[in-house]
Amino acid sequence: MTDEVFTRFYRLLEQKTGISLDSTKNYLIESRLAEICKAQDQPSITEFLKALTSTSVGDLHWQVFEALVTNETMFFRDRQFFDALVQSIIPEIIVRRKGERALRISCAAVSTGQEAYSIAIALKENFPELKSWDVYIQATDLSERALHRARAGLYTRTEIERGLDSYLINKYLTITSAGKYQINPVIRDSVSFFPGNLLDPSPAYPKFDLILLRNVLIYFGQATKEKVLGHVHRQLSPADGILVLGATESILGSASYKLQQHGKISCYTPS
Ligand SMILES: C[S@@+](CC[C@H](N)C(=O)[O-])C[C@H]1O[C@@H](n2cnc3c(N)ncnc32)[C@H](O)[C@@H]1O
Fold this sequence. Notes:
CATH topology of the largest domain: Rossmann fold
Structural class: alpha/beta
Number of strands: 10
CATH superfamily of the largest domain: Vaccinia Virus protein VP39
Distance between the termini: 48 Å
Bound molecules: S-adenosylmethionine
């Protein structure tokens, strides 16, 4: 009975978020949901999951789903990608877009914001010519809780030391009276955060020159990956938009994407 309840819950979780778990992760469910389960006065995790799977999806379900997603991220995660971004990806886009002087970047599954702010800082540090361009950085995530933190741009000392050196900390962050570090408005205001579920069909516009979809496909099963890559395809600028995945992720055998190498970084463009 317990196994059946867990299986039904995993099916619901995958339907709504794409995240694919199985019985080897029962321990994770038990530990991550212990607090919510107690707050809901549920006698056990099994009873709680039974209640969740027999009611229509609402706020409590999303609170539970959010407790199960992995929000791990850091500033300038994967240095080789940021080197490629500065050395070839952005310079090539600048050449292609110099007519319209517009650059559109999407960070999907951005978690608590460090990825999008790293992009904004990298652009500011390395491409002063973009000052007169229309640069749009959109960042989305399923988790409202993560987005709330991202929008505030407030981080602990430990978080900022993961990826930022003292030069960038002094230049782009301010210490608050509560002892936290906040991203300065010049960078914060350059990123637009929105809720977004990768399972939902994406709007066809705007088209993006660069889409980051890093370290999220690893949580999805094959069918979900293909669906999400289909949605992302619609958002890429046709022919020359660039998709970047996480360092351990790749697209194999897709007819819709072709590989484009930027140094050691494998990117994908619509075929
Ligand atoms: C491990 S973090 C990756 C953060 C960042 N992209 C990076 O590479 O550092 C994965 C993020 O994916 C988000 N996520 C999981 N499923 C999602 C979905 N279906 N739609 C949008 N975001 C999702 C989670 O909320 C989480 O913030």
